[in-house]
Amino acid sequence: MVAKVETEIDILGMREAGKCAASVLEMIGEHVQPGVTTDHLNQICHDFIVNELECIPAPLNYGGGGGQMPFPKSICTSVNHVVCHGIPSPAKKLKNGDALNIDITVIKNGYHGDTSKMFFAGEASILAKRLSKITQECMYKGIELVKPGARLGDIGHAIQSHAEANRFSVVREFCGHGIAKVFHDEPQVLHYGRPGTGVVLEEGMSFTIEPMINAGKRNIKILPDQWTAVTKDHKLSAQWEHTLMVTKDGFEIFTLRQEEQ
Questions:
Q1: Are strands 82-84 and 229-231 parallel, antiparallel or unpaired?
Q2: Does the predicted TM-score (pTM) go above 0.85?
Q3: In this structure, what DSSP letter does residue 183 have?
Q4: Is 102:52 a contact under the CB 8 Å cutoff?
Q5: Segments in the chain below pLDDT 70
Q6: Residue 189 maps to a domain
Q7: How far apart are CA 61 and CA 150, in angstroms?
Q8: Domain encompassing residue 127
Q9: How many CA atoms lie within 13 A of 66 on its CB side?
Q10: Exposure winner among 46, 66, 157, 159, fewest CB in 10 A?
């Protein structure tokens, strides 16, 4: 079933959930420093989500079944060559220059807000900064095409074209997804594709756009923990994500941060 936001109550619910998710990313930035563990960042975010925002951290105990363990933490922390779903760990201490994606999903009154942002511990390399910038531009280029009548292939093509024009590659094993009261719903929003193909967008559809872009080749592998995805060539990866909906004449981003407004 395609995720749709059809009532004013739904829209207000998604706006509130999106604002909560964005506020976690705004809060955590000052804590991303060399020497800090990703588990410590997880604990700060968990406490803020639960105690300050009165939300539920959606990743905590998500999944499982079929031999896979549920995700054990409240946020995803993906460092350097980790593409996505990095598990916070007391053993993972950030070093100067590390690039870090923090992925937040909160549930507020039954509605999901899902967003991620790149951070740097200390002074990052020129390549890491450039990859992060181009990846964020890829997300925005995809979002700018969202309107009724557009197709998902248009979004994927715009993202892929910008990444490859800058000699980067698009991860294909993961994609954006429908989201509202269900965490992962239809449609699947691929970050590559051909214009004029794919699902036609309709007013009220609600989904994420979250390109994962690699500095090297697009190939990835999943670590034995069954969650952490890494680049096969160990080169850097970056990701940015927003939750948005299709409006009658364009889009509304639910997870905008203050710095973007």
A1: antiparallel
A2: yes
A3: S
A4: no
A5: none
A6: yes
A7: 36
A8: 8-260
A9: 2
A10: 66
